[in-house]
What we know:
globular, CYTH domain-containing protein, 15% helix, CYTH_domain, CYTH-like_dom_sf, NeuTTM/CthTTM-like
Amino acid sequence: MNIEIERKFLLRNEGWRDEAVGVERLRDGLVGEFGGGKVRVRLGESRASLAVKTASVGLARWEFEYGIPPADAEMMLATMCGDMVVEKSRYRVIHAGFEWAVDLYEKRLAGIAIAEIELGHASQDFPLPPWVGREVTADERFHKRNMARLALASDAPLTVARLLALPTREPAPV
Length: 174
């Protein structure tokens, strides 16, 4: 069992590429949703997993993640997730001793790029890299399942500009 504390940011520029130390192609599928939480299957080049994530309380949420056989992940993606599968390249980026993940989404989300950092606690300080822009941690438009739904309903690929033009709801009080 693990508490996930994550912050998400848009990218200001491509400067992160100079600090990238690896990349992996991933396919994520939404298996189910419950009370603000979700069950996600992920198939990467090096491993497959099934994760159960609770709704966030502030920046934190419980995450239970288990390795599964890649063939099982492939079958879940094909039979359980329908159109709620997103593909992305995840770059591992090291900046000032902190590890960031930069996700470049593909296909119907091909205009979206998000940098994420996982923290040890909600008030942990970390230096913002010069390539990081606006924080979107609490912006529901940038939650993966919402982006996938919006892309399905759109007649054109989703971009950051199109997402930012959509109305947003105020986050629930914590």
